[in-house]
Design goal:
The complex is a heterodimer of chains A (85) and B (172).
Chain A (H helix, E strand, L loop, with lengths): L11 E7 L6 H10 L7 E6 L4 H12 L2 E8 L2 E7 L3
Parallel strand pairs in A: 1-2
Antiparallel strand pairs in A: 2-4, 3-4
Chain B lengths: L8 E6 L4 H16 L3 E6 L32 H5 L6 H4 L5 H15 L5 H10 L3 E5 H7 L11 E3 L1 H8 L4 E4 L1
Parallel strand pairs in B: 1-2, 1-5, 2-3, 3-4
Helix pairs in contact in B: 1-5
């Protein structure tokens, strides 16, 4: 039996470049940027700070904005947030 | 959010005014606000100048053996070298603190760390309550005009009223 997995639409409404920034700038910029999109829309954020991985997960848990997907490669970390409220 | 749906509250006391100690309260306050927390910071004694319009915070390596003295330029090996500066030099050479401050600011910029001005601006934008200590202002001879308009002026009771309802309280 095959199960249909709903793939969320991750087309970003806004892209944010936090490469080269250190703690806590990626969090501050992400918070600001997510306020600029509509509820349900996607924010894509790219960072180079390895600390952002744990911090973005905490940001998602505290604020409720959904971390739909994250990936890592070539020293860059990519996050897709869906604005929740 | 807590279980009762009221926002989590963070209460900080900023009591130190050197550049290195300016970071913890401003980083925690701005980040907490980004995490939807309600934040108040009480700036008292040497922390009060961190609310001045013109920020002049410096770092002082003198008698601070934990502070690595590194250069923010040159080859990787050169930058990695920690310079052993005796107290006899760091304490008497004129301008040593200014030099160390410039080096630290350069290093922070190289590493993509925000300036104190940027973090303070983030606090103002996100509605962090910045409370300057009236008593400190009086004893150090400052006036209201020396401080940013966005801060409020209060005393121990002003801070404690907020801290009494807080989930996290830190003295820095």
């Amino acid at each position: 039996m095959s199960e249909e997995v709903a793939i969320p639409d991750l087309n970003p409404a806004l892209e944010l470049d936090c490469r080269g920034m250190n703690c806590p700038l990626p969090i501050l910029k992400t918070k600001k940027a997510i306020g600029e999109i509509e509820v349900g829309e996607i924010l894509k954020m790219v960072a180079t700070d390895p600390g952002a991985v744990a911090d973005m997960a905490a940001f998602s848990r505290r604020t409720g904005h959904v971390l739909e997907q994250q990936s890592e490669g070539d020293g860059e970390y990519v996050f897709f947030f869906r604005r929740a409220k | 959010m807590n279980n009762d749906d009221r926002p989590t509250k963070l209460a900080l006391i900023a009591s130190k005014g050197t550049l290195d100690w300016a970071y913890p309260p401003y980083i925690l306050a701005s980040t907490a606000a980004a995490l939807d927390m309600e934040v108040a910071v009480f700036f008292t004694f040497y922390g009060l100048p961190l609310l001045m319009k013109d920020l002049k915070a410096k770092v002082s390596p003198h008698s601070n053996p934990a502070m690595p003295m590194k250069m923010p330029f040159g080859s990787e090996g050169f930058q990695g070298f920690s310079w052993p500066i005796p107290n006899a030099i760091s304490g008497v050479v004129p301008g040593f603190d200014s030099f160390a401050t410039a080096m630290m600011k350069k290093t922070f910029a190289n590493k993509g760390v925000a300036t104190i001005e940027e973090l303070r601006e983030a606090c103002v934008e996100t509605g962090v309550r910045l409370i300057g200590c009236q008593m400190t202002m009086d004893v150090f001879g400052f006036s209201r005009d020396d401080f940013i308009e966005e801060c409020e002026i209060g005393g121990a009771a002003t801070f404690l009223e907020f801290a009494a309802e807080s989930d996290i309280s830190l003295f820095i």
